[in-house]
Specification:
Layout: E1 6-9, H1 16-27, E2 34-37, H2 48-61, E3 63-66, H3 70-78, H4 82-89, H5 93-99, H6 118-125, E4 130-132, E5 136-139, H7 154-159, H8 167-170, E6 174-177, H9 184-191, E7 198-200, E8 215-220, E9 225-230
Parallel strand pairs: 1-2, 2-3, 5-6, 6-7
Antiparallel strand pairs: 1-8, 4-5, 8-9
Helix pairs in contact: 3-4
């Protein structure tokens, strides 16, 4: 058996073809590899259902460890109250609902979220707010470094734009997050700095019309080698 490897991929946002290409043609993932995902797998892009199906398919043969992002969280909250659904409509829910077969005329109706099969809802509910290893900490947006226990601040883990380094949680580990789209050049520059303890891997894949964005990014966690694919969706 080949040596196991570890990778992490930033925000996918329904870009199924790009995600599949990155996994199969760039990373060449194998059954004994581990893949971390930084959340926001859905919304804005057209292939949200296909992305979730592909994650489940990969999970059959390898260790796939997704964390929940603010977009998955909004979807789950939309099942609880109409206000949360309204918030979700402002953040790309229509594309997700369409991918699940909801009629276009109904995607802005609060009841439409209940047309997503329960199976998918229950699956995403199992995703944690964070994952951690001996050398890395994975979270969607970041951590609040100004409070005693950053792991109690759910809003920061899902929504923050700050790049705090809470030493009491990280210790000697590196924080890997997504959420805030940045140019590929900025991601590369941060990786080239040996003192960096926080890496943002959101290359803004779904924003392909912006020349400085539009990349899906993966990082080999053992070699610290970056892989990227321009949006193919």
């Amino acid at each position: 058996m080949s040596e196991s490897r570890r990778f992490v991929i930033g925000d996918i946002h329904g870009c199924f073809l790009t995600f599949k290409y990155l996994v199969e043609e760039k990373l060449h993932l194998k059954p004994n590899d581990t893949l971390f995902l930084l959340g926001d797998t859905i919304d804005r892009g057209a292939g949200s259902k296909q992305v979730i199906d592909y994650i489940r398919k990969l999970s059959v043969t390898m260790n796939v460890r997704p964390v929940i992002g603010n977009h998955e969280f909004m979807m789950l909250q939309s099942l609880e109250n109409e206000y949360s659904f309204i918030t979700w409509t402002l953040n790309g829910c229509a594309q997700t609902l369409l991918s699940f077969g909801v009629d276009r005329s109904m995607v802005l109706e609060p009841g439409s979220v209940f047309q997503i099969p329960e199976f998918y809802i229950e699956y995403i509910k199992t995703w944690p707010l964070y994952e951690e290893t001996n050398d890395f900490f994975f979270v969607h947006a970041g951590l609040n470094g100004y409070i005693k226990d950053p792991l109690t601040d759910v809003e920061s883990m899902l929504w923050t734009r700050d790049e705090d380094v809470p030493v009491n949680i990280l210790k000697d580990r590196t924080l890997i997050h997504g959420h805030t789209p940045i140019p590929l050049s900025s991601i590369r520059k941060r990786l080239q700095n040996p003192k960096s303890k926080v890496f943002n891997l959101d290359g803004g894949c779904v924003y392909k019309n912006y020349p400085w964005l539009g990349h899906l990014v993966a990082l080999d966690l053992d070699k610290m080698v970056l892989y990227s694919v321009r949006n193919k969706d």
